[in-house]
């Protein structure tokens, strides 16, 4: 029996350490402090020769969906004039790798802002939440103070600005102010900002709100270069930074523990020709402890417990026969009520003569106080 | 006080101007000529580059496979052409329809003002055949044109290649613009009829049937001239009507594809050389540039593309040249080059406008833009302005008379009549030069044993020479009216008139303006009644527009390495004059009216001044 006690003791220790193990992991699950994930993916270019920007955005969209963020939590803004462009030799597709390996357009892409709706105003309204009441849910960023948001921008940019569809620009100051508005309205817990344009680092220079981490594909004065030309389609398919970002993300799965420091190493100068940059001074946690899946995936928080919970029985056992209730339908249109209507009750107003008398009294009191001679002037 | 309002400084400035006028004029003239010659020097030029973002690089996969079949179609076309004795309209319509195009024809007719001896035609009647390849998914708002002229005898391979490309293009789904495949008869006349019908304009008085099918606004056009099965090089022709040039991006596109596919490409028929620092290399570049200047100055369209430019359609002609070189290019490669160019033009979202419209090309890979070549012309015009200022100063200061005691005031301001009369008479002579040759050709043919063309040309020369006798006749009208002031006023007016005229011409057609300036500015600067008459009369005639044209003809032949003897040169000169007059009446070229109505009277004014009494 000693042996049995020993085994039971071992099992006890084993199960308690198990519990400790799970509780440790459970603690780790809550280290980031967010409960839901959102993504705002914006491609700011239109026209056939900017094919690569749409392919960039769609590739990030695919990765983010694969890692768990559902379409309802992704706001995708694209000009969306690539797949059905008259010049596309493969209609209804957008490829990101040459030799047409991967069609990132697919069957289930949901573009929330398309065509001419991709404007600076719409982008800022999505971020700050100042949308008209008629805006559908799919076009809103319904984040709260426990949301981690990934924002990805791509297109043509310059020193301090990003061009939106050939007619307007957003400046880095505007973007920083938008993020500050988001912070003050508690619309995010942590925010990861990735930008793949020329001179992208200038866009995050002006951030001043807490919990922002930013990555850019090139420094001020450098151009971000495109990666793959496809001769059959006749355009460049992807930009370098996003291409290597995508390769990096292909290795991430929902349970991976890769952290942000690895993301900063994506696309060194030898591959990208431009120098990618990042900014972490506004971020409160150490980037080494931030998981990629904190922003790119939507990992459900799971709390493991060993307790049993008693659920009350919803079905009441009735002693005796079951009561028979008579059921009847509610009148869809209460015709009897309409035909035999009661007179409508009007609101009560004081009689008109009363109001006239009241005003006369006021006037008389006025003129008594200030002298009757004024009355003579009136009459 | 300001520089010009302070009388002392003003006097100093004016005296400087009058003292140094001649030296400054000489320096400016030499500087202008030197600047112009320096334009061809390679370090002063820029490399060509693609300016249009939408066209990008040559990143496209060309897969045209059917060069041999295209040549076979060309041979069939030649056979049918010979059988019909003109343009085989029915065969072309059937063939284009078999390739899936929407085919339409247009008939046109034109009676030339006088017979064209170069092309041996007088009453021209013909048919254009064109097929439209509709873009599979795009609205019919934009179009591209590929054309090949149907000439009796050659250019069959071009039509064959056109039909082969039509078949290949029809199988592709990536066309965003309609492509119009045009075979025009009687080259430029047919093309003019087609363009007028397409754009619903009628500027030259031609008769044509309206077009039944249209394709939207044309963004770019290419014309093909290919007369052999294999070629050694492709030549690009850019100069169009009135010296207008297509957007440089079209030439850049052609050059980029030539480099990608590895075809030898030339401009002005001259190969590119790499040794720009040697004398022969530099002279080669100068020759290429001078050829372009000559061609642009003539104001005639040097290919079927020349007529598109007036409608703001960028167009160029590609000629296949088969010379004695080892490396030959076959029709499939040419087809691939054209396919690549059309795929890139397909990507355009707007008309070509990012690159230069005014440029000179000393070689296919280098260009000189308007900002670099205009100062050469500006330096020549400065001479005219300096002379005008000098004359103004002379007119303003009264002449000092120290011989007589009594101040003999010869300040009778010259009557308006004495200045106006030469002006009016010169312009009337110009009008005569413009109208008489055509109008009196029948009378001339009756009285002289010449053909109509010769009659027209010789009448023109006769009127021109008759104008030389004018000053004597003018003075019969105004008895003893000429004064010292008179000729100065006339010269001032003439110099300013010439400056404005040359300035406007150079803006539109730089080459024409520059060549005229080269010869007329010395005339304007140095002519006075007091220089030795015989010598200066001779020089004036040498520098007159007609002789400039004669020398240009000889020079042009030299540049093309086909020098001519004097008799041949003279006949060539006569044919150039007749072609110039025909161009004006057929296509609206402005060189002939410009010379006859404006430049020639201006030169006559200086002739008048020379013989001022």
TrEMBL record, chain A:
GO BP, sorted A to Z: attachment of GPI anchor to protein; clustering of voltage-gated sodium channels; detection of mechanical stimulus involved in sensory perception of touch; GPI anchor biosynthetic process; protein localization to cell surface; proteolysis
One annotated Gene Ontology cellular component of this protein: GPI-anchor transamidase complex
Annotated metabolic or biological route of this protein: Glycolipid biosynthesis; glycosylphosphatidylinositol-anchor biosynthesis
GO terms, molecular function: GPI-anchor transamidase activity
Gene3D superfamilies in the cross-refs: 3.40.50.1460
Active site: 156, 198 (nucleophile)
Transmembrane segments: 353-371
Keywords annotated in UniProt: GPI-anchor biosynthesis, Membrane, Signal, Transmembrane, Transmembrane helix
Alphabetical list of PANTHER family matching this protein: GPI-ANCHOR TRANSAMIDASE (PTHR48067:SF1)
Entry similarity comment: Belongs to the peptidase C13 family.
Subunit structure and binding partners: Heteropentamer. Part of the GPI-anchor transamidase complex, consisting of PIGK, PIGT, PIGS, PIGU and GAA1. Interacts with GPAA1. Interacts with PIGT; this interaction, via a disulfide link, stabilizes the expression of GAA1 and PIGK and links them to PIGS.
Protein name (record): GPI-anchor transamidase
Protein species of origin: Lates calcarifer (Barramundi)
Taxonomic lineage of the native organism: Eukaryota, Metazoa, Chordata, Craniata, Vertebrata
TrEMBL record, chain B:
Main location: endoplasmic reticulum
Membrane topology: Multi-pass membrane protein
Annotated Gene Ontology cellular component terms: GPI-anchor transamidase complex
Protein keywords: Disulfide bond, Endoplasmic reticulum, Glycoprotein, GPI-anchor biosynthesis, Membrane, Transmembrane, Transmembrane helix
Subcellular location: Endoplasmic reticulum membrane
Pathways involved: Glycolipid biosynthesis; glycosylphosphatidylinositol-anchor biosynthesis
Biological process according to GO: attachment of GPI anchor to protein; GPI anchor biosynthetic process
InterPro entries from the UniProt entry: Gaa1
TM ranges: 20-41, 370-395, 415-434, 455-474, 494-527, 534-556, 590-612
Entries under PANTHER family matching the protein: GLYCOSYLPHOSPHATIDYLINOSITOL ANCHOR ATTACHMENT 1 PROTEIN
Biological role stated in the UniProt entry: Component of the glycosylphosphatidylinositol-anchor (GPI-anchor) transamidase (GPI-T) complex that catalyzes the formation of the linkage between a proprotein and a GPI-anchor and participates in GPI anchored protein biosynthesis. Binds GPI-anchor.
Subunit structure: Heteropentamer. Part of the GPI-anchor transamidase complex, consisting of PIGK, PIGT, PIGS, PIGU and GAA1. Interacts with PIGK.
Protein name in UniProt: GPI-anchor transamidase component GPAA1
Species the sequence originates in: Lates calcarifer
Gene: gpaa1
